[in-house]
Design brief:
The termini are far apart. The protein is mainly alpha-helical. Helix 2 packs across helix 5 and helix 5 crosses helix 6. It has a domain of 109 residues: Orthogonal Bundle (Arc Repressor Mutant, subunit A), CATH 1.10.10.10. A hairpin with a 2-residue loop joins strand 1 and strand 2. The chain is 59% helix and 10% strand.
């Protein structure tokens, strides 16, 4: 005999907890996902995700860094970075060349297309920055970046 709707026990519906039960990692990951969603949505017209733009920006900042230096600057495992570099290389935004000083290492270089993509994405990134700061506050955002820079250092481990 089929059960009536009233007889079927529904799972308890609970709202997501407001706190993270004191877990710093969970709080940071949730906040990072939210901020990434904001930046990714603003960068969408460029075809770049915020993580990809960060890679291009860091390559540009350091000139032609080794993959190891780039991974360290992004606080990424080398294999994770390698996974993220492949689509950018496929799209012709960067090249990975052998390091003449260390054959085991590779050097990342932006192509002209990569430089143009980085420049074209700058106004969208700026809009994301402004949107974040309008919601969070300019001074609070600056203080947050200072605190997060401390956490991102190797000395923090």
């Amino acid at each position: 005999m089929p059960k009536k709707a009233a007889d079927v026990r529904q799972p308890e519906q609970r709202p997501a907890p407001a706190s993270n039960n004191g877990c710093n990692s969970t709080a940071l990951r949730k906040a990072t996902r939210r901020v990434s969603q904001l930046y990714d949505s603003m960068l969408a017209p460029t075809g770049l995700r915020s993580t990809q733009r960060a890679i291009l920006h860091n390559i540009n900042y350091f000139g032609s860094p080794t993959v190891g230096k780039l991974a360290a600057s992004l606080v990424l495992d080398r294999s994770a970075l390698g996974h993220n570099l492949k689509p950018l290389e496929r799209e012709g935004l960067l090249t990975l060349e052998p390091d003449p000083n260390d054959r085991r290492s590779r050097i990342a270089r932006l192509t002209e297309k990569g430089m143009k993509k980085l420049a074209d994405s700058a106004p969208y990134w700026q809009m994301a920055q402004e949107r974040f700061e309008s919601k969070f506050g300019v001074e609070r955002a600056a203080a947050l970046r200072e605190v997060l820079a401390i956490i991102a250092t190797e000395e923090f481990e």
